[in-house]
Design goal:
- This is CBM6 domain-containing protein.
- Keywords: Signal.
- The protein has 9 helices and 53 strands.
- Helices cover 13% and strands 39% of the residues.
- By secondary structure, it is mainly beta.
- The strands form 11 sheets. Strands 33, 34, 35, 36, 37, 38, 39, 40, 41 and 53 form a 10-stranded antiparallel β-sheet that branches. The protein has a 9-stranded mixed β-sheet with strand order 19-18-21-16-15-14-3-17-20.
- The chain has 5 domains: 133 residues, Immunoglobulin-like (Sandwich); 295 residues, Glycosidases (TIM Barrel); 144 residues, Galactose-binding domain-like (Jelly Rolls); 119 residues, Galactose-binding domain-like (Jelly Rolls, Sandwich); 145 residues, Sandwich (Jelly Rolls), CATH 2.60.120.260.
- It is globular and about 75 Å long.
Length: 898
């Protein structure tokens, strides 16, 4: 058993009550969040992080992003739908249902291409539809046109989905908002009759195929409409066409205040009508300002989890990025980590939380849960602007023992497209006495847009560490500015139609040769450091220069961000990263719009929000403890054995632990597993759905097994299994950049081109991040339009490889008032005489702005060339391809001292 060690300075421990002084102001000024773990509020529902059109095409978002975010419900386009160019429910259902997906909702009206549907007018009988494929002729046939649409959509789900019973049909979307039935006084009877007709038609189709009852959701109003809801429920009860899920939308800032009252009114209405409670899904919630912002998201999630209802983030930007809660092709922003934390509560029971005030806009709120199996208590909180005092009670000593360990992690706003690394541990408390089962924990919340995760476990047999990797951050407006302006960004202005800036301010007008932002920072040692800028490149890639002590400028390269509307331009922020050498001591980092002070760099007029500096000298080792992993089937964290308390117990064919690890860049990482075995054992490691490595220990003991794995930039899903069993303490990833020499980089312009494939040269003034200033376009849209890479050293053997593709895709189809109708382009890779694979490549905002997406492939020949293309549609434009063995060398296992 370890010694009692308090690793956070300034902590006092008295009679079982722990207090950590806040960094800003006395405890009396803090917001108090009280949690009673002895008072259960029910089984964790986990449905609040659903998403509207959050899925584009297969692989957009990637499976790692989907699984890690723990999405249980989504609304997608119906089969044959033309409202969006991507997101057909049938095409994305495999990825959605892969691990956590439960309910696939479809908007049947998405058959129509326009918003509002069918010009906003209820269709009549002017068409005759072909039920096999949804095509039509312009002549009446005595059947209401929309009823024919409903039939072939339901038929498609019934006959082509592998999970038709897990679908929920939404016949009408926002019928009160200009979609056919806005005039309730004049159109009520029409809507009620149409509801009954569509309801019965869907049931008829399912019964035709022996599928039983089809679930139907509605009415789907733009907001809580008590009069309409009363009329609909009364009619539906009388006619036996009650919805299986009752739906309305909660949009706007003030809804954080009124949401609970709307739900209470709905439940009261059910009672008045003698209707048993119907499950509720708020299929659109939140505003632009909430997406990707953990301190905002947690306020909404806490309401829905309290009420045990489901909800789906509103669709404000474009399809396929979890409603602005993911970044780049495969990366996490801060919103994704908030989703992940929320999903980590699966298997728990939620417990009572008392915030300073309920039903208050932009205030401290929280979610708490206790997992009895893994003996883990969790608090998620955020949204307040003051320091936070947590009053934790009801921690049962029968479960947690006499002492507990506490870790506090933080996620801060990184912008909709900005990358957020694995949430750092900012505070640890080791071996805290539970004499009275209560703890008071004061945490300095410096940013109301941040969210925090507090994990409490029985005392573990590992050393808790806060701030394991040195990092520092500064708001851009707090730096020394020249020829630039700091702007206030009110989070409540414009009715929430804006993306938020960290700290409520950002820096703009950064468009003159003299523009610069200077930050003086002291680093602890000589080494290499990653400098990250969170900022907005408005629709085009751009560049800045980073000077260190007025010398040695490095180019900071930005990719384009969304800028199709005035609301998005400048506010839709991403991130850029560059690695620089620094000596120990104080340095002035100067980010400038010009290299020479005379000529601005291409597209340097970029908003600046925040700077972060991180020590990456040792490969930025990142620890994922067993207590933070997800477990499947009977796997769990155990505290039953001395010296391995807090280890994950994994044994047999079915048990599994899942880790979602973050890589700042594509390349090789040493992935290490610390564990104990009772005899000879092995660990089967799966990375992003592919079995990659088997680690072995020859006998009983404490071991560290390490495999050098190729990880994709962003989130990687690592699954851990052991047939003979292990007790896993932790997983650690360490970047090994030098090993990237084993990968082979091929510029697209240097490949063998076939058919129409042609090289594009990007002028220097474009600010493009294309390697060498060139890319390859017109690939695909015909079987002959391909490019070919002959096999060569580095990938001339059969085996598992990653093909990292740098690509651009700015294709749009159709129009919408505020949603860019993006196309996910498909790229196929075929090994001549061997394997094939493909990937869908999401939107990159500009044709000269390149992101990276990895296609895993297992090659089966030694000499078969790799051919890239797409016979049916255009592939993305290609900058370069990096081919890397999935594993380097043989995994190693060494004994470790416990």
């Amino acid at each position: 058993m370890k010694r009692l060690t308090l690793l956070t300075a300034g902590i006092t421990l008295t009679a079982g009550i722990l207090s950590v002084p806040a960094a800003a102001g006395p405890a009396a000024t803090a917001d108090v969040l009280s949690v009673d773990f002895a008072k259960s509020t029910g089984t964790f529902r986990g449905g609040a992080t659903g998403t509207l059109y959050g899925f584009g095409d297969d692989g957009a978002p990637t499976q790692a992003l989907i699984d890690g975010a723990h999405i249980t419900n989504t609304s997608q386009k119906a089969p044959f739908g033309t409202q969006h160019p991507s997101g057909d429910a049938i095409k994305v259902e495999d990825g959605f249902f892969h691990k956590h997906g439960r309910d696939m909702y479809i908007y049947v009206q998405d058959y129509y291409p326009d918003w509002s549907y069918h010009g906003g007018r209820r269709p009549g009988d002017t068409r005759t539809y072909h039920q096999a494929d949804g095509t039509y002729t312009n002549q009446p046939n005595g059947i209401w046109d929309y009823l024919e649409v409903v039939e072939f959509v339901a038929e498609a789900v019934a006959t082509t989905s592998e999970r038709p019973k897990d679908y929920v049909f939404i016949p009408f979307n926002e019928p009160d908002g200009g979609n056919w039935y806005a005039d309730w006084a004049g159109q009520k009877d029409t809507f009620l009759a149409d509801w009954k007709a569509t309801y019965l038609k869907i049931q008829e189709v399912y019964q035709r195929h022996g599928l039983g009852h089809a679930r139907i959701g509605g009415p789907g109003d733009t907001r809580w409409q008590p009069e309409r809801s009363a009329d609909i429920l009364a009619y539906a009860k009388k006619n036996r066409v009650l919805p299986d899920v009752f739906i309305w939308h909660e949009l706007g800032i003030d809804n954080l205040r009124t949401f609970r009252s709307h739900f209470a009114d709905y439940r009261k209405l059910e009672k008045q009508l003698g209707i048993k409670p119907i499950h509720v899904n708020i299929t659109e919630w939140g505003m632009l300002r909430d997406m990707g912002t953990p301190g905002q998201l947690v306020q909404w999630l806490s309401i829905m989890e309290d009420l045990k209802i489901d909800g789906q983030t509103a669709y404000w930007a474009y399809a396929g990025n979890l409603s602005d809660n993911s970044a780049r092709a495969n990366a996490a922003n801060a919103g994704w980590w908030m989703f992940k934390w929320y999903g980590d509560l699966e298997g728990s029971r939620t417990t009572a939380v008392t915030p300073p005030a309920l039903d208050t806009v932009d205030s401290l709120q929280g979610i708490a849960a206790a997992d009895a199996l893994s003996k883990r208590a969790t608090v998620l909180y955020g949204g307040g602007s003051k320091p936070v005092s947590l009053r934790l009670s009801g921690l049962d000593r029968k479960t947690f023992g006499e002492r507990v360990d506490i870790e506090v992690r933080e996620i801060t706003l990184s912008g909709a497209e900005g990358v957020h690394g694995a949430p750092p541990v900012i505070k640890v408390l080791d071996g805290v006495s539970l004499d009275r089962g209560s703890i008071t924990l004061d945490v300095p919340t410096y940013d109301r847009y941040a969210a925090y995760q507090v994990i409490i476990t029985p005392e573990q047999d590992r050393t808790l560490v806060a701030g394991a990797v040195w990092t520092a951050a500064v708001e851009a407006e707090a730096t020394s500015l020249t020829a630039a302006t700091a702007y206030d960004q009110d989070p409540q202005s414009g009715g929430g139609w804006k993306f938020l800036a960290s700290g409520g301010r950002d820096v703009g007008s950064f468009n003159r040769p003299a523009s610069k932002a200077e930050w003086t920072v002291t680093v602890p040692r000589t080494g290499r450091y990653r400098f990250q800028v969170i900022g907005g490149a408005p629709g085009v890639p751009g560049r800045h220069a980073l000077f260190v002590d007025d010398a040695n400028p490095a180019i900071v390269q930005y990719t384009a961000d969304l800028a199709l509307t005035p609301v998005q331009k400048w506010q839709y922020r991403g991130s850029a990263e560059v690695t620089i050498p620094l000596t120990a001591g104080s340095h002035t980092l100067s980010l400038r719009s010009s290299l020479d002070g005379t000529t601005v760099l291409p597209n340097s007029d970029i908003t600046l929000d925040k700077f972060l500096l991180t020590d990456v000298t040792d490969g930025e080792p990142t620890v994922y403890p067993a207590s933070t992993l997800r477990y499947a089937n009977e796997a769990r964290v155990t505290y039953d054995k001395d010296e391995v308390r807090g280890y994950g117990e994994i044994h047999g064919d079915r048990e599994r632990a899942d880790a979602y690890v973050q890589a700042w860049e594509t390349g090789y990482h040493d992935v290490s597993f610390d564990y104990r075995s009772d005899g000879r054992t092995d660990i089967d490691v799966t990375v992003n759905g592919r079995s990659i490595a088997t680690l072995t220990a020859a006998r009983a003991g404490d071991w560290r097994s390490t495999a050098r794995l190729h990880l994709s930039q962003g989130i990687n899903e690592i699954e851990i299994r052991s047939k003979k069993g292990i007790l896993l303490q932790q997983l650690t990833t360490t970047r090994v950049a030098a090993a990237d020499a084993a990968a082979v980089t091929i510029e697209a312009e240097d490949t063998i081109r076939h058919g129409a494939a042609a090289v594009t040269t990007h002028p220097a003034a474009s600010g493009s991040n294309a390697s060498g200033g060139k890319s390859l376009g017109h690939v695909g849209n015909g079987a002959g339009n391909t490019f070919e890479i002959p096999r060569g050293p580095g990938f001339d053997r059969p085996g598992a490889y990653d093909i990292a593709v740098s690509y651009a895709n700015a294709e749009l189809s159709g129009r919408h008032d505020y949603n860019p109708q993006v196309i996910d382009r498909r790229l196929e890779v075929t090994e001549t005489g061997g394997a094939s694979a493909y990937g869908y490549f999401r939107y990159t905002y500009a044709w000269d702005s390149f992101l990276e997406r990895t296609i895993p492939v297992t090659l089966t020949t030694t000499g078969g060339s790799l051919v890239f293309g797409n016979p049916t549609a255009y592939a993305p434009d290609i900058d370069k391809v990096v081919i890397a063995p999935a594993v380097l060398g043989r995994p190693t296992t060494v004994a470790r001292h416990h």
